[in-house]
Amino acid sequence: MTSQDFAAARTISEIPVIDVSSAMDGTDLAKVARDIHSAATGSGFFYIKNHGIDPTLMTQAFQVTKDFFDSPHDIKETIAVNTDQRGWMKTGMSRLAGSKTHDLKEVFFWGAETAPDDPDLCKPLVAVNQWPSDAFPRLQKEITPYYEAVCQVGRTLMSALALSLGQPEDFFNVAYAKPLARGQLVYYPPSSEADEAEERFGVAPHTDFGVLTLLLQDQSGGLQVCAKSGDWVEAPPLEGTIVCNIGDLLARWSNDRFASTLHRVINRTQNARYSIPVFFDPASDTMVDPRDLGVAADACKYDPVKAGGHIAARNSKSFAQFRASK
Fold first, then answer.
1. What is the per-residue pLDDT across 242-266, written as a single tens digit (0 to 9) for each?
2. Strand arrangement of the beta sheet that strand 242-246 belongs to
3. Residue 243 CA to its chain's centroid (Å)
């Protein structure tokens, strides 16, 4: 990386805003599929509006996120992140491939509720959540309604994505019967001149590892996307919307018809920034194979991979808890 990586991004976003109301109510899924196809083959990013998630759930999710990160350090330490990628990760533990230093953020990781005797616990990324139940019981109670609502939106978007790839709308249903819908609460302190001198980002330039990301961001700004021209463009906060992007696994599944695009975060405000991404990925043992999406065997760019193993391998190279466990 060079200092150019910290140059100001263009302020006019090139990321489309898609009205998904006709997908959510079932009146015209095909139109939304066409709109998503255009975005997925272009920037790989799009906003969705009229998604039906109650704004009070979004507000509640942000408030409990802020309150959690403001809670005493010893409370957060009781649920220190593990190699199942569940719990609280302190600043300094996230360093993405190719970055000069660690990311400037704290994260709380969780996923679908999984019982201790669930037979899938042996599979990558299937794990029991770590909630601060005694010291901070609000977290699970107040984040879960938003999580469940955004997962419902994710299922509808997967139906639209299936149509956009020339498949029946229920193509992904089996893979998403028990999805790896993993959430993060993320706190970004303001970036200082010293951070920029060290080339330290809130999140360094990267592509997401999985299939589809649905991101709720606050009004601080700082999310930037690398356009096909190589320029960085802002993905500014738009009230009531969710930012969606294609991840590496869906780019792979689509045989690169869809774009998994570099993006980054730099919090240049004087305030804390909060975001809540949900990585809406298929069941751990889902085989991701371009041939299943109509790609001829001799045209496949990628061998089949299992979703959970692929994402877990990428995680193990990015987070300090995996290095510490070796």
1. 999 999 999 999 999 999 999 999 9
2. 17-19, 45-49, 242-246, 212-217, 273-281, 180-188, 106-110, 87-89
3. 9
